[in-house]
Structures are given as structure tokens and as C-alpha cells.
Design a protein that fits this description.
single chain, 247 residues, alpha+beta, Beta Polymerase, domain 2, five-stranded mixed beta sheet, globular
Amino acid sequence: MDHTRHALDIADRLAAELAPEAIGIALLGSLANGTDHPGSDIDLVIAADGEGVAVRHVEGRMATLTRKTPEALAAALDHPWEAGAAAGAWRFARLLHDPDGRLAALQAAARAWTWDRLGPEADRWAAGELVGLAEEVHKVAGMLEAGRARAAAANRAILALRLGHPMAAAHRLVWDSDNTLWDALAAAAGPDWARAWDDAAGVTGAGHDAGCRAALTLYRLAADHLAHHLDANGRAVVRTARHLTDS
């Protein structure tokens, strides 16, 4: 059996099993949007009381069952830290169980959604993330100077990964899976960002020191794009961290 048809069959059977306790069930992710591969997980969202994530092994495939209330699922479109991903995922979702049409309404809202719904709040949130990540800049620079390669590498990875969602919000991206986020962000943020991210993440094999410097460059590029959305204290924190990226 074709790997996609097999995974879709598993999704249908899991949905039938879980339907009695659910308000709605949807298939999201690569299997829903047609970009799956044999190792892709089966990403089911269960609209029901309570929240949690369970992972099940079914016939050689991994199924991730995310349980959220309908209210929490709808609220994601109003949160800048998850709206771009939520809107993208729900646009391609396969609705497997939706007796009251609540997931269909959510999908319609996702298809109509734009970043205009959040406006400047998206930029304020994205800029605020730079304040929290300033510590990682200090750690990368300090650990490089101290010759502590593993610590520097760990914090370099944190910067490369955690700057992704704030910059995606800043560039008003909508993505259906994190598998597509990084290429979309590289295209939107430009060649300097793409080159630095590739070096920081190890795509180019640039080497440890160069990779760490590239992660600092990512922070500098993000700060140049977003810092003016911060209050005075936030700007001071980010400015201090940004100075370390110039050394």
C-alpha cells in the first residue's frame, strides 16, 4: 500500500475511535497538505474538553494526537506567536469528524485570516522576543571567548531556532508546517539572513566559530528590523546585546 494511503487510512480509523469523545477531529500537517514522506507523523487535532498531547505507534507510523478545546483552537488566530502557523495549517486541514460544523467554521476563518487582524501587536510581540533572547547572545559571545565550544554551540542553536517565529511574524508569513517555514523565511528575510541562518544551523558546514558568529548576525539582523517596536528598557537590553554581535 502507498505510504500516504496507509497513513490516511490510519487517520480515519483513529478519528472513528476518538469521535465519541470529540467535538471535532482534523488532520493537519504534511499528510493533510500532500507533502508527506514515509516517516511523516499523522498529526491529528482533537477538539474536546481538556488539553494535552499523546503519541501513539500504529502499524509502523507515529500518530501525534493534540487535544485542545475549540475555544483554544480558535484563539490561536489572535496570538501572534502561533497565528501564522495556525492559519496555514487549518487552511489545508482535512476535517475527519465535525458534526456541528465548528471546525469548518474555524477553517473558513483561517482561510480569510490575514496579519491585519493583529496589526502592530505582531511587531510588538516579535520585538519582545528579542529581549528574552538577548541572554543567548551574551552566552554565545561569552562562551566563544572562554573556549567553551559546546555551550556556545547550544546557545547558537537556540538563537537560530527561536528567532524563526518572531521573524516570520515580522515578515507576515503564513506557513502550514515548520517544514516549510525555514525556506519561506529565508526568501522573505533576504540573502543576508538566509546565508547567516544556513551557517548558524550547519547547512553549509561553515565551522564552529563561523556558525556562532552567524547566529550573532541573525540576532543583529532581527534587532535592526524590530527593535524600534520596543519600549525604552527593551531597546536598552537589545542594544547592549546587539553591540556584542559587532565584535
